[in-house]
Specification:
The protein is 29% helix and 34% strand. With 125 residues, it is α+β, with helices and mostly antiparallel strands. The protein has one domain: Roll (SH3 type barrels), CATH 2.30.30.
Length: 125
């Protein structure tokens, strides 16, 4: 897992460059963020519809974290050091998504087939 997280961190500049450039067939942009509630373990949540302006990442929460009073769809600002992974879907293909790729790699053939059927994009090597 650490190598997937490191690859995501090492390529964050690619993510920033890509989302700053319009693409006619980009359907999804997200970052995986580690949120640390004071009364519990860290939670890794995808933040969707991400934009990067003036050195800040902004997007919409992909899930609730009641202990932090954050709800799905709520606007949040994210610090770069809290980003674990990033993903973009362009031309029907996953770009980035290093933790997703690792998870798929670790799945049994049956799990992988079921998972890939749920996606509206492809994962290529």
């Amino acid at each position: 897992m650490e190598s997937a997280l490191q690859e995501a961190r090492d390529t964050l500049d690619i993510f920033i460059e890509k989302i700053g450039t319009p693409h006619p067939d980009r359907t999804f942009v997200a970052i995986k963020v580690r949120f640390s509630p004071p009364d519990g373990p860290p939670q890794d949540i995808w933040v969707d519809e991400v934009i990067y302006t003036d050195g800040s990442f902004r997007g919409l929460m992909g899930d609730d974290i009641p202990s932090l009073r954050l709800e799905a769809g709520e606007k949040v600002t994210v610090e770069e050091e809290d980003i674990l992974d990033w993903m973009i879907v362009e031309d029907g293909k996953l770009v980035g998504g290093y933790t997703i790729r690792l998870a798929v790699h670790r799945m049994s053939p049956e799990e992988k087939e079921r998972f890939l059927e749920t996606l509206d994009y492809s994962i290529e090597d």
